[in-house]
Structure formats: C-alpha cells, structure tokens
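ARCHIVE CARD
CATEGORY: sequence design from structure
SOURCE FIELD: tokenized fold
FIELD CONTENT:
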C-alpha cells in the first residue's frame, strides 16, 4: 500500500487547526454567515471537533479543526490523523495552526491514517488527500510511513501465508530494492553454528532459518536483530487457545527491524547496517525440544529449558552471539518477548533496556519528538541469579513469576558484549486509535531512527 501526499493543488481546501483558546477569536473574524454557522454547530475548538464551512455555491470553503488544550492533546497522539477519516472526499492543505514537530506529526499521522490491510479483501474508500505542508521533509515522512506500512502488513499476515520462508522472501525483496546483500542459513545447516535456532524450529514442517542482510560500506556499524517466530504454539508447554490467538504477531520484532531497515536504507543514512532475523515456527512434533532439556548455544553457554514457550530468547541468543562477533558500534534487538512487559507498561509503550544512560536519554528524547512512546526498563544486576539454574549456565524461564521482562533481557545480555539496546515490544494495536487501526503496529522504530545521530554520532 502506497502512503503518499497528494500532488500540489492550488484548489486544495484550507484546513485551520485551532486550539480551544484561539477558536473564539478566529470565529469572531469570520463573516457573519460563518459566525452563525460555527455557533449553530457548537464549534468551540475542542479536540477532534471538525467544522466544514461552505462557500456561496455550497462547496467547501475551509475546514476548522479543534485542537483542544495541551492537557487534552497529551492524552493521545496523531489527533490530525483522526480528522483525516472524518473529512469529505477531496484534497486538503494545512493552512494554519501547526508548526515544527506538531506539523510533522500531523503530516505523518495523516498518511498513517490511510493504512488499510487489504491483502484478503478489497480496501475501503481511501481517505482524503493532503498536500505536503510547507516546512516539513515530505520525502522523509513518506519513507517512514511506507516502512511502517511494511511492518504492519507483515504482522497482519496470518501464519498460513507468513512462515519462515515468506519472512525470508520479504527480506529478499527489501534487499533487492536497496542493493543489499543477503544470505540465509536453513534447516539442518543450523545445527552446528546456530543450535538454539535449530532446536526451536526443528519440529515444524517449515524449516527454521537465520536471515542475514547487509547494507552500506561506510560509517559506524549498526546491527538490528529481530525475533521472527512466525507462529508460537508454545511448543510442548502448549499455550491455551486464548493465548495462542494472536501468535501470528510473534514475528513482530522481525517485522519492526525490517521496517526500520527500510527507513535507514531509503533515507541513505551513512552507516553500515546488518539485519539478523532468526525465523522459526515453534511447533509440536516428536522431535520438539522438551522441558528439562539442556541445549548448547552458538556462544557455548548451555541453557536449561524450563518452558518451551520461552523460545524467543533462545533464537535471539544465537543471533545476538553472531552479531557480537563483529563488535558493532551498536546492537539493537526487537522482540515480542514477554507478557510481563505488557503487564508493566501496557500495549502503547515500547519498553527498552540499555546499560548506557546516554543511549537511554537519546532514545527517550527522540521518542517524544516523533510521537513514538518508549519507556526505559532496568538491566537489574541483582536478578542475574534468577537466570542461573545451577545445572546449566542459564535458565530460559525462571520460576516465581516476577520480573519476567527483566530476566528475559538479562538472559539476552549474556550473549552481547557490544553496546546493546533491547526492545520488548507488543507489536499489536488492540483497538483502533488515531492513525492506528486495530492490528499489527510498529513500535520503537521511529524513535530509534530519530535517535541514530546521537546513538552513533553520525
């Protein structure tokens, strides 16, 4: 799906964005007919109000959009994106009321409001068009919107059409589009060098694999690692039906790093990028890995399996060990990893872990600027003992039910010595919100993109 601005149009309908405190003055300056129209419709500038002012011929003269108070706006984001779906068919331009980051958010929100997952049914009527506002980098915003659409499409596609092979195919399409190199290690070829990836994926009829994509020949080195569990039954510790219902989204980390990679490559960011995706299906068969098995990892650390449903950290561990062997300037992993993270911060925030206060500050600042909310969680060293079972080097699922997101992050950190940031994302919008229909969603990617100049000193 193409998410783009409308072509420049001198007849585009002007759209005036009015905070509550400015609405009365603006209305008072309208001709008498306009004042009466606004009064009749009770327009006060409240957040989300839309008032279409007719011209003398009954057409659209202009549109007033309520922007509410700062307090009201703080309770959400992409408020102009919500407006985009309320307007009559046509092409619009933001004529007044927004500037700077607010204008950029409005423009991106408008494009994202046009997203529809239309692979299996005809799309609904497209939203109204928006001419790219003056003062923004329209090309950059379109690239970001397109990359988010890729992430959403990948997550929304059911596992019947999005297994390890199809995830590889998507990575190959992206690599071809940006002249990136790609190699894939598949099936039993994983046994020696990536034993955890093989162990998790071997029970499926769809072969596990490690996807390795490289792009760029100059600049600092960034490696993105995305969890690509294309469906997660839970393995022999099978999930109950209610918990299995959304497991097509368990490759949301892979989908998000592919979207982020598309942003980086399409924008021509001056760095050397590597993307690693362990793509598997966690299934049940006679050769499935079992509770109490002890598995070896690429790094040589042994892992006691205390729950086969804690498989994401296993496949990520081998990929992270591979990433770390080149000592990149920064490693970032993204994964739909733990329910504990959702309990901690809900579905709208992307929790992240890092030992670097500078990295944390850069990501948090960028997240606020681009309306991509994140929240730092701690690599709490005293909990290290919880992931040490005694019989092996590591435990993949410590008992006790506490600090699940932290212990998972600590597990992953054991495989990385390079500077490291880990995101434990949800990857799903549970109910429709402005510019975010129910379904797959990217989390954290725009924040990372905006933070890259600080993270890598570009």
């Amino acid at each position: 799906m193409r998410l783009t601005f409308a072509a420049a149009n001198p007849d585009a309908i002007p759209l005036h964005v009015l905070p509550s405190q400015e609405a009365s003055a603006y209305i008072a300056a309208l001709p008498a007919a306009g004042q009466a129209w606004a009064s009749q419709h009770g327009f006060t500038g409240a957040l989300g109000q839309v008032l279409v002012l007719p011209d003398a011929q009954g057409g659209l003269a202009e549109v007033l959009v309520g922007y509410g108070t700062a307090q009201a706006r703080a309770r959400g984001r992409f408020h102009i994106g919500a407006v985009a779906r309320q307007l009559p068919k046509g092409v619009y331009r933001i004529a007044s009321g927004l500037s700077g980051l607010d204008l950029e958010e409005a423009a991106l929100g408008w494009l994202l409001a046009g997203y529809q997952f239309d692979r299996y049914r005809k799309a609904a009527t497209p939203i109204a068009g928006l001419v790219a506002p003056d003062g923004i980098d329209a090309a950059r915003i379109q690239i970001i919107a397109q990359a988010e659409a890729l992430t959403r499409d990948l997550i929304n596609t059911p596992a019947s059409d999005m297994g390890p092979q199809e995830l590889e195919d998507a990575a190959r399409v992206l690599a071809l589009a940006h002249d990136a190199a790609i190699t894939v290690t598949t099936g039993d070829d994983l046994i020696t060098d990536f034993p955890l990836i093989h162990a998790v994926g071997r029970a499926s009829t769809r072969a596990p694999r490690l996807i390795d994509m490289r792009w760029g020949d100059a600049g600092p080195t960034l490696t993105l690692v995305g969890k690509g569990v294309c469906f997660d039954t839970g393995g022999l510790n099978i999930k109950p039906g209610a918990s299995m219902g959304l497991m097509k989204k368990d490759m949301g980390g892979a989908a998000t790093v592919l979207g982020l990679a598309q942003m980086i490559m399409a924008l021509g960011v001056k760095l050397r990028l590597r993307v690693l995706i362990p793509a598997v299906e966690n299934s049940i068969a006679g050769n499935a890995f079992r509770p109490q098995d002890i598995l070896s990892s690429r790094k040589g650390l042994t892992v006691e399996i205390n729950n086969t449903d804690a498989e994401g950290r296993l496949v990520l561990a081998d990929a992270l060990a591979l990433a770390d062997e080149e000592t990149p300037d920064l490693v970032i992993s993204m994964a739909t990893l733990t329910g504990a993270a959702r309990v901690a911060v809900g579905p709208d925030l992307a929790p992240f872990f890092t030992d670097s206060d500078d990295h944390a500050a850069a990501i948090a600042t960028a997240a606020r600027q681009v309306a991509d909310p994140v929240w730092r969680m701690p690599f709490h060293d005293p909990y290290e003992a919880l992931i040490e079972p005694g019989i092996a080097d590591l435990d993949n699922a410590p008992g006790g039910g506490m600090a699940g997101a932290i212990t998972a992050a600590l597990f992953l950190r054991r495989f990385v010595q390079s500077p490291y940031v880990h995101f434990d994302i949800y990857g799903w919008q549970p109910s429709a919100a402005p510019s975010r229909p129910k379904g797959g969603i990217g989390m954290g990617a725009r924040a990372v993109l905006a933070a890259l100049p600080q993270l890598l000193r570009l």
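CARD ANNOTATION: The mean pLDDT is 97. The chain has two domains: 13-136, 142-455.
SHELF: design records, drawer C
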